């Protein structure tokens, strides 16, 4: 039971799912595979794997699919962006923090977006309209993207993370379900400990009882030996007790 504990705890705590999107493509536009992710939940991670050099992932919007998103109402809140020409073999991860609206992204390199390098999270129903809008989009929509990507934590409805495993730590991120699960595991542990203690007490009691019987048996044996010796020392017929005449 004890050796099972870390696994069950991990399963309860690590409820977030990591989704992967390969970013590749040769000389032409980048290709996102898969292009549209569905059923992504709050706290889930999306990791982009760059399989070929010279592409990027930049957060965009439904109405302007080839323009870097920035929230004018909150100057510090900007869309996420990977380095503009990410090296092959590197990854870029975001964590989804809010699923009240879809998240859109595109390749910010050259005219890859206009050539169809767009994608989305929980945005499948917008796939054709976004792809159509991208074809006629402005071509300088990514001028504001920092060449080495945006800082950790940036993103609208999401945040850039270093690595999904590091980002998922921290008890404050536990869902109510995880708390219930941990409570159940703790209860099972208590029951297990109680059973072990009870078993130990029963075994101890049996051992003690056994020792006591053994000790009693020896005492009785010794007593009967003493009696036997006393009887043998007496003259036959109990003559000592008979007064002499
Ligand atoms: C993306 O990369 C990660 C880590 O390098 C790997 O675990 C995962 O299988 C890759 N997924 C895809 C779809 O390439
Ligand atoms: C999610 O985003 C919407 C609008 O973007 C906002 O109204 C809502 O408060 C956000 N929810 C959370 C839990 O932050
Ligand atoms: C990001 O790029 C700028 C120049 O474009 C450079 O000055 C800066 O050192 C780079 N930062 C990192 C962390 O690479």
TrEMBL record:
<keyword id="KW-0812">Transmembrane</keyword>
<dbReference type="InterPro" id="IPR008972">
    <property type="entry name" value="Cupredoxin"/>
</dbReference>
<keyword id="KW-0732">Signal</keyword>
<dbReference type="InterPro" id="IPR052953">
    <property type="entry name" value="Ser-rich/MCO-related"/>
</dbReference>
<feature type="transmembrane region" description="Helical">
    <location>
        <begin position="178"/>
        <end position="197"/>
    </location>
</feature>
<protein>
    <recommendedName>
        <fullName>Cupredoxin</fullName>
    </recommendedName>
</protein>
<keyword id="KW-1133">Transmembrane helix</keyword>
<feature type="signal peptide">
    <location>
        <begin position="1"/>
        <end position="16"/>
    </location>
</feature>
<keyword id="KW-0472">Membrane</keyword>
């Amino acid at each position: 039971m004890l050796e099972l504990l870390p696994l069950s705890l991990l399963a309860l705590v690590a409820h977030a799912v990591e989704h992967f999107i390969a970013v590749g493509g040769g000389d032409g536009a980048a290709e996102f595979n898969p292009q549209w992710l569905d059923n992504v939940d709050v706290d889930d991670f999306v990791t982009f794997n760059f399989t070929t050099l010279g592409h990027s992932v930049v957060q965009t919007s439904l109405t302007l699919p080839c323009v870097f998103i920035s929230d004018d109402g909150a100057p510090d809140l900007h869309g996420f962006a990977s380095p503009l020409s990410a090296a092959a073999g590197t990854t870029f991860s975001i964590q989804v923090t809010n699923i009240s609206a879809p998240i859109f992204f595109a390749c910010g390199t050259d005219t890859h977006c206009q050539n169809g390098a767009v994608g989305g999270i929980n945005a499948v129903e917008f796939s054709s309209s976004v792809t159509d809008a991208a074809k006629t989009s402005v071509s300088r929509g990514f001028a504001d993207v920092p060449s080495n990507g945006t800082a950790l934590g940036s993103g609208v409805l999401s945040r850039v993370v270093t690595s999904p495993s590091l980002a998922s730590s921290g008890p404050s991120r536990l869902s109510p379900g995880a708390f219930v699960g941990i409570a159940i595991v703790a209860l099972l542990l208590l029951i297990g400990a109680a059973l072990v203690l009870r078993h130990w007490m029963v075994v101890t009691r049996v051992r003690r009882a056994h020792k006591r019987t053994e000790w009693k048996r020896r005492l009785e044996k010794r007593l009967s030996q003493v009696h036997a010796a006393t009887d043998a020392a007496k003259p036959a017929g109990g003559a000592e007790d008979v007064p002499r005449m």
